[in-house]
Amino acid sequence: MSNDGKQQQGWFQRNAWRFVVAAESAAAGTLVAFTVAMMLKNGGSGGGGAVEPYIAALLGGGGGLVGGFCLSSWYGRPGRYGWAYAILFSLVAPPLAGAIAGSCLLPGVGTAVGAGMALWTFYYPQSIAVWAACLIAIHLHTRRLRARQFSGGHLAGAAPKHCL
């Protein structure tokens, strides 16, 4: 393997936890978007079922994947400030994921509409509960992954140094 290949493989190993956060954020985006769409479909105020839940789940997952990778460095930090960062950037995550998903459908207008629609996340108690559970799970899991990485251990799926 060329030296360039080893450098690329090293980059992936050092940042493997970011891909895990992106995957977990995609799952969280799917769950939260599905919950919001179900609340709107079942007669919640506004919307009236404007978006089918499965379409919302697909868009939420896609936006969550990209948004999770972009915001991944703010999750998993230790201490009080770690929780503050995780909460702050979890508040940013739904509008960011909505803007990303909206841009995929209709660049420009879709970006603004997607970001605005994502604010429904914080309207229903059920979607707030799902959002909070996802925040806690992602932050705690990422904290464990980062601690393992920085203590010299390897992440699941990443080969130990002696195997390279």
Automatic annotation (TrEMBL):
Instruction: Please indicate if the UniProt record lists Membrane as a keyword.
Output: yes
Q: Report the transmembrane regions from the record.
A: 16-39, 54-76, 83-110, 122-140
What keywords are annotated for this sequence in UniProt? Membrane, Transmembrane, Transmembrane helix
Q: Which domain of life is it from?
A: Bacteria
Q: What is this protein called?
A: Uncharacterized protein
